[in-house]
Amino acid sequence: MFWMIIDIFSSFDPASFLSLNKSTNILLISRFLIIRLIQLSFWLITTRINVIIFTFSSVITQQLSRTYVNSLKGTSSIITAIFSTIILINLLGLNPYTFSLTSHLIITLTFGLPIWLSFIISSFTKAPKASIAHFLPDGAPDWLNPFLILIETTSIFVRPLTLSFRLAANISAGHIVLGLVRIYGAAAWFSSTGAFLLLISTTLFYILFEVAICLIQAYIFCLLLSLYANDHAH
Q1: Rounded CA gap, 87 and 213, in Å?
Q2: Residue 124 lies in a domain
Q3: How many domains does the chain have?
Q4: Distances (CA, A) of 47 to 91, 175, 217
Q5: Which strand (E) or helix (H) includes residue 203?
Q6: Which of 98, 126, 139, 216 is 20 to 30 A from 55 (CA-CA)?
Q7: Which of 30-34, 57-61, 115-119, 156-160 is predicted with the least confidence, judged by mean pLDDT?
Q8: Which residues neighbour 57 within 8 Å (Cβ) at sequence distance 6 or greater?
Q9: Is 5 a domain residue?
């Protein structure tokens, strides 16, 4: 066995993994797959790959149609690409001897912060007065206005941090649980055959559960991004 988890927190350290599976390689694979997806979207002939791609993209496209994102030119395409990228990175992180990039806050913040900041800049550029009005709810008493403005400002500016932390925390928690089950499974190999088979069955079930989590978390991430666009000045 060439690699093992030293402790449960070593899953947060990319240096704990093999040199052939550095995060740069995962990003290159994800970039190649995204370019391939874009190329396939221009094909006129329907193929099985196109059907799979458009099945995933239609899920987030339907959600984007219910928000203000469609009024912001090009934003829906960007969020759809982010949705596909996060799914690919999450699934690649489930492979053996690989590091899940979305378990690090710096990577998830890279996805969420630029889109959120572009909404803020675009809103203040298009309609400064309407954008400032979002910081104060209608019908509030005058003596409460300073506190409401402070609370609303804080809630708006922590959005990219909470959004990114939610994705990183959910992906990290799954890998920590898988690491613990593998450690106990390796110990049960030499002590109890029944316990070993039980842990192996649990691992297989949890891997399927993690695949679902990878898809759901990508959808939630892009769903919240699209909802942030509703605060854009109309």
Answers
A1: 10
A2: yes
A3: 1
A4: 23, 34, 27
A5: helix 193-228
A6: 98
A7: 30-34
A8: 80, 83, 84
A9: no
